[in-house]
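Subject: design request, 314 residues
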């Protein structure tokens, strides 16, 4: 089975079969990552440039690890010390890099639509590592993989996405993926942190403003970071006030007396959207998400490189 897309620009473009293929292939790679020898020669003829115009820790490191584990040649690009600091345009930068015979571009950018723009302008394979507030497809894939790993399925699982939906690229990708795969999705946030046309864009979701009602409903709470750096005006009175109303705290989980799986794409604002004793508790699978990110990105790079679907795990 081949993927329907040449590039990974967003979950919105993927079919259900595409998603299933990526998740299944990533399972093979996760098995390999448990071994002493994790290196594979699968993509030793592939050259990948990691084009990060925005700060990143987990996403960047997991992409680099995935590429190295597959044997690809890697070029890491940062705007600091590059010609971008001298005024070179994004397209000129990419065209110059591609003339050096690069096969795949993993790009993160603060502007929505940059991966789509590059896909139209170049013949290289484009992998979206997060663009503005549009999408973050590999994060959604690793979140879905983590849910499937925990519950043995995605279909029918009740997932609440809680927090700063307005500025999030994780939320749209998760909603696209989870609803395609048959999960139920509820969004919970103060009205000021919700996009204006959220329900029109995603008619299958539920919207709730009360955190306790949301937690009583869900099986999984995927908690999003408050992105203060993207807010150009106050959207709530204070971080303390937000924590009191929407923070995941021990007392509210104790009150509802229900086992809920806690997720967070990171980085965590401890004491704001989630308290430390919950983030570090046994019901949290936050570190599992991080571990699964490497396997998912191995699966994505392997499949979008055009390699055969069959993976030799021996």
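Subject: RE: design request

Done. Sequence follows.
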């Amino acid at each position: 089975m081949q993927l329907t897309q040449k590039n990974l620009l967003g979950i919105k473009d993927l079919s259900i079969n595409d998603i299933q293929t990526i998740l299944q292939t990533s399972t093979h790679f996760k098995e390999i990552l448990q071994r002493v020898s994790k290196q594979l020669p699968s993509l030793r003829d592939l050259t990948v440039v990691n084009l990060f115009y925005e700060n990143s820790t987990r996403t960047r490191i997991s992409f680099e690890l995935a590429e190295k584990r597959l044997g690809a040649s890697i070029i890491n690009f940062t705007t600091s010390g590059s010609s971008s600091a001298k005024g070179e345009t994004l397209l000129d930068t990419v065209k110059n890099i591609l003339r050096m015979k690069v096969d795949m571009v993993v790009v993160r950018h603060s502007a929505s639509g940059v991966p789509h723009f590059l896909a139209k302008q170049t013949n290289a394979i484009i992998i979206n590592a997060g663009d503005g507030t549009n999408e973050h497809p590999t994060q959604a894939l690793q979140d879905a993989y983590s849910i499937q790993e925990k519950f043995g399925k995605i279909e029918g699982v009740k997932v609440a996405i809680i927090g700063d939906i307005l500025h999030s690229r994780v939320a749209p990708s998760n909603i696209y993926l989870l609803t395609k795969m048959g999960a139920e999705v509820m969004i919970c946030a103060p009205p000021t942190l919700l996009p204006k046309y959220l329900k029109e864009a995603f008619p299958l979701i539920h919207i709730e403003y009360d955190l306790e009602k949301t937690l009583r409903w869900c099986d999984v709470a995927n908690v999003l970071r408050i992105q203060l750096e993207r807010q150009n005006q106050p959207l709530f009175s204070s971080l303390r006030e937000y924590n009191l109303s929407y923070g995941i705290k021990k007392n509210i989980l104790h009150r509802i007396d229900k086992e809920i799986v806690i997720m967070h794409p990171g980085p965590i604002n401890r004491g704001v959207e989630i308290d430390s004793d919950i983030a570090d508790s046994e019901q949290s699978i936050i570190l599992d998400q991080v571990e699964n990110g490497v396997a998912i990105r191995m699966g994505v790079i392997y499949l979008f490189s055009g390699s055969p679907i069959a993976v030799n795990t021996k």
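The CA atoms of residues 80 and 290 lie 26 Å apart.
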